Amino acid sequence: MELEEEQVPTSMVKGCFLYNPGALSQPQPKRKKQNMSSSKNHFMRLPLESDKDADNRHKVFVSCWSVLKEKIEVVITRQHDKVFSSLLGFITTSASQLDKLHLASISTEMFRPPRLEIPTAVLVAGVNMPDHDVQFEQLRVMIRNVVSPHVVLLKSTSCSTGMKATMKDIYLQLSNGDQRAGLMSDAEESHTPHYQRPLTRLPLCSMDVLCGWYQTSCDTMRDHMTPQKKCPDTDLRPPVVIIVEDFEAFSPAVLQDLVASISPHLPQFPVVLVLGVATSVRAVHSSLSRAASSLLCLEVFHTQHSALTLQQIIQETLLDVLPFKLGPNALQFLLHQFFYCNFSLVNFTSGLKFAVMEHFYWQPLSVLLSNRLEGDKQSITLSRALCEAVRATPSFQKYVECQSPEQQVLLLEDDTELESAVCVFLDKLHSYHVTFFPVLECLHILTKHLPSNHLGSKNYELYLNSLEQNITDHPKFQDAWNLVKLTGKEELTDHLRECVSHLKSHLDKQGIGEYLDLFSSCLEQLSSFEEDQPMDTGESTTPLPAAETTSERKMRFQERLRHLQSRKREPSAFDLLKDTVLESILAIFKDMLHCPSSMTLHEVMYFNNVSSMRKQLAPAPRAALQTALSTPHYYLPSAGHVTEASALDQNMPDVCVAYQLHIECGRLINLYDWLQAFVAVVAPSTQATGDSEKKSGSSSKEKKKKGSSSKPEEVDPLLHARFIQAVSELQFLGFIKPTQRKTDHVQRLTWGAC
How many distinct structural domains can be found in the chain? Predict the structure, then answer.
């Protein structure tokens, strides 16, 4: 009897519950947020390392990246302010013109033209599309703080369905992004039952609705103004700035309808358009019709090219005295990703952040940079794990090999001696960077105007060459220096004057004074030199014969050329002075511009692990997919272990079996043959049973008529469904696609590792 009662199904009433929408609005007890900065062991503790050192590495990483991030943001903000200031001036001027238009429409009853030109700013932002979100968001904030609180930022993704969605997006953003558009407050919505709420929360968005909202907004601003702060009516009518972020991605029909709708309502609804264009102004005229283009009063603004901004970022971060540097391979990888992929400063910043994080995460000696960030040059204390890490670095081992046997024993066994040596090495590394970058900039000033750009026309190109080896030992350095020797007096004087001014800007750094004195003396010698005597060419001025044939003139000219070629030109006084000046400058370059990898313990500051950066920042999804489909046992324990890469196992996932079988096929794959092979691998027992049944029934089939056609073998519906799912997954991954060349065939798309 009890068993029967347990089998009786329970009532559905027990599954119902009451849902109170207002309960969600009740004040909930605030949970204590976990303070990430106070938690310990953000970084993994490396072997023989203490938890304190791991936590210190994380603190140094946070401090170092905050300094780098601040410098990058300052450079980008300075770049944006140059064009945004002029753009804000255009919006302000356009707003005053729209106010005059509004006053004219009120004061006079004259005929008002139905079509008016909309003030439009075309902002050519460049092809670095990932940076546009940051640029236009910053522009939106600046316009809202300086010009007008009514700013709308339209994107093609939210306006792709048509004009109705565009007008709705404009209305919602003008209503401070509130989807209820001020019709219902949060408290009213939470305490109102769902069946009593209005079904339509937004009015039908049109230009009349927007004009009514704008007039209400202006009246509200006027009512909230105190008598002491009353201002003219023109100041209470701020313009509505509509920013179109990705103009090329918008539907031309939507843009044309938007322009045609705004133009007649400009006196009541003042609008200033800002069109974000990635290519050129020609895109505006090619997308819009002539009638729509005639309604726009265009003014073009250009942002600075992202390559120039990148040069400034590298100058402020990597070419400065900061306790983190990129090695040649890592810097080359980031530059390659920037110039050959997207020209994105956001992606470059993300890659630089990953390099900083990777360096401080895996390098235990990076904790030694904490004193440099804090400006503390006192002696440091090394734990036993850090001492062993220092002794394991290649640069330190190279230094120990050059020391005497007694000194080698002290450095390898005495931790106190090692601490003092490490402190000296870090001081030398810091002093090296203090003088390295100003002198490297002087070399860049002398060589950036040379033809063929042997050492690079940009400062980061020269820096990249100096990271690989001593810049004076570079194969192209001698060619560049020979061209410097051919420089004229005025040009060389200008270059030296620029070098002197650059060194004066770094005069507060230790060791720059002596190099400034040397460059100043060289500049003074060249400037004070005056060439009084003309240079003797040694040519005789013999009179030409009266009558001379063409062959004789040619022979005489050839003899003159041979004479000049065999004759050695004696250097002038200026040539001797120039050679002396350039030799002294070359001695400075050879003394100071040696490769950073030659410094002891440069591994503390330099990161050059490009393999991890390439794996995370430039992944190869197709290779990863092929590896996973070929060897699933590396990822799934239940996939079984296969000794050979091309072997098949029934324990493998269905998509892996289908992938391995499709590799053995040609360009076109027969689905029926593919299905039979799939069933033979996935369910070999079913295939063996089918073969035995086929042999036992062969005798009975021979008795049938010869004209009867044999029916295809039936496949288990479950296996058939699994095969269809595996083929669909391969099609989704891009390995096959349907084809109409043959019935019941698919086309293979990948070959080898491509």
Answer: 2
